[in-house]
Amino acid sequence: MITHEHVRDLLRSPEQQPVLVLLEGRERVVPAAELGGERYRGAVEIISRDALTALVPDPDPSDSELTEVASRLQTVAAERGA
């Protein structure tokens, strides 16, 4: 289940070009450059930080805003079969 904490982790990630993925039933924030490697084989990409900042332009969003976005991302995950 994608939560506001996952969304906040993606926004604050120190990685270059981080993405939120689902892998083996767990949500993870990983560098996009590593998605093609063995470590993340089978990961389902949910959203990149760049795409997320278009949805959440506020640099310090509230938990309620992040919860709303997390709910939408959970729907995306379900549609992708994750």
SSE layout:
Blueprint: H1 4-12, E1 18-23, E2 26-31, E3 44-48, H2 49-55, H3 63-79
Antiparallel strand pairs: 1-2, 1-3
Helix pairs in contact: 1-3
Largest sheet: 3 strands, antiparallel
Multimeric state: single chain
Q: What class would the helix/strand composition place it in? A: alpha+beta
Instruction: Give the overall average pLDDT.
Output: 93
Radius of gyration computed on alpha carbons: 12 Å
Strand content: 15-25%
* Count of beta strands: 3
Give a brief rundown of this model:
With 82 residues, the protein is of the alpha+beta class. It has helices spanning 4-12, 49-55, 63-79; strands spanning 18-23, 26-31, 44-48.
Descriptive overview:
The protein is an alpha+beta fold and 82 residues long. 40% of the residues lie in helices and 21% in strands. The chain has three helices and three strands, in the order H-E-E-E-H-H. It has helices at 4-12, 49-55, 63-79, and strands at 18-23, 26-31, 44-48. Strands 2-1-3 form a three-stranded antiparallel β-sheet. A hairpin with a 2-residue loop joins strand 1 and strand 2 (26-31). The longest helix has 17 residues, at 63-79. The radius of gyration is 12 Å and the shape is globular.
